[in-house]
């Protein structure tokens, strides 16, 4: 790696990002940024190079084996032009392809939270890992397969942590998300959603060459299109018939409609009928009422299974459940796997409803103005924190309440000790909905005991196509 016209100036530490080795040949043209986007990014100290402010890094030939990223020393800046091959600043282009971005906001491992540039999406690794172990232990205890939904974390990094803990596979919602997971080395993927359109279906079929990918369906015409695409390239796609058991979203009705569609799937050579999917939805209710709601939904699910099996088909997979209902759904005999996702980080919405898992994810912001003793302004707004289900809550300091959120500003009301906040102080916020906040950030800053251990791309951020 070289710097054009190198001279003493801003010092950078080259951080090598090793991606998961994939047991397949990457088809040309190879995009190293896609590789990094999909990979399990691990940052560690390496050799240093020198570059003056405003200079650009010279491009290098492309190498599919690894990519490099740069982090600058605090308060120093360098801008990077369009790069190729093994490149510094790949992390800057990881998710949205933008060039010419400042890179000094990426801290080096060992940096304390207090020294992070903000807003920063911060994950406490100890808590997140405890949450995923706890859910896996529960599933194992009840003889239940756990196929965590990745729509919250959007990252092969977290998917591999879940798989390493014992998950049987990973769930996602979009083909783009599935591509990121498979490129990142995940080999068991369920797309728990209907995939339509010639191009998306072709991409889905292509994934089957590299992984075991299943998809939900609720329409016979769509089923035939999936089979045609699979046959065209010589693969067989796994299929779960989506059954409407409660929320009246996607899904065919249990009974004759579900059975008829299952028979169509079973009769097509490009598809493999694996079973049924019946998501009971997010349930906000007391314990007894929740138990009754889940039981009624799962009774419909069992009816669908019984009818399909009475038609001579074997139902191997019965996939259901979410974080709000896992404890009840996992106790249903005919359910074979649950798709919980939000449990890994939790958020304000879930913490209001349950205490099974602990808060692992917060957004750290900085006070940028103190107009009055009772008011402080933060560097965070709706562009960096979702507020559709309510304003984020202040985790620390005590005595501070977020009362407004503009595009780029958060407005705090201060009482008692919080009135001691000064410009430059940090404030930690709890998003009410983690998934939609995560989706507007490029990186997780993963810490233990307040010290940065890893910077992880939100690899499937924006991959909703």
Based on the model shown, name its key terms.
single chain, 465 residues, alpha/beta, TIM Barrel, Lyase, Ornithine Decarboxylase, Chain A, domain 1, 8-stranded parallel sheet, 12 helices, elongated, disordered N terminus
Describe this structure in words.
Strands 4, 13, 14, 15, 16, 17, 18, 19 and 20 form a nine-stranded mixed sheet that branches. Strands 5-12-11-10-9-8-7-6 form an eight-stranded parallel sheet. With 465 residues, the chain is of the alpha/beta class. The chain is elongated, with a radius of gyration of 24 Å. It has helices spanning 32-38, 90-93, 125-141, 156-165, 175-183, 198-207, 220-232, 256-266, 287-310, 326-329, 348-353, 434-438; strands at residues 10-18, 48-51, 66-72, 120-124, 145-146, 170-172, 188-191, 212-217, 237-242, 271-277, 317-320, 337-338, 361-372, 375-378, 393-396, 400-405, 410-414, 426-430, 443-448, 451-457. Mean pLDDT is 83; it is low at 1-102. α6 crosses α7 (220-232). α9 links the parallel β10 (271-277) and β11 (317-320). The chain has twelve helices and 20 strands. The protein folds into three domains: 1-106, no CATH class; 129-344, Alanine racemase (TIM Barrel, Alpha-Beta Barrel); 356-457, Beta Barrel (Lyase, Ornithine Decarboxylase, Chain A, domain 1), CATH 2.40.37.20.
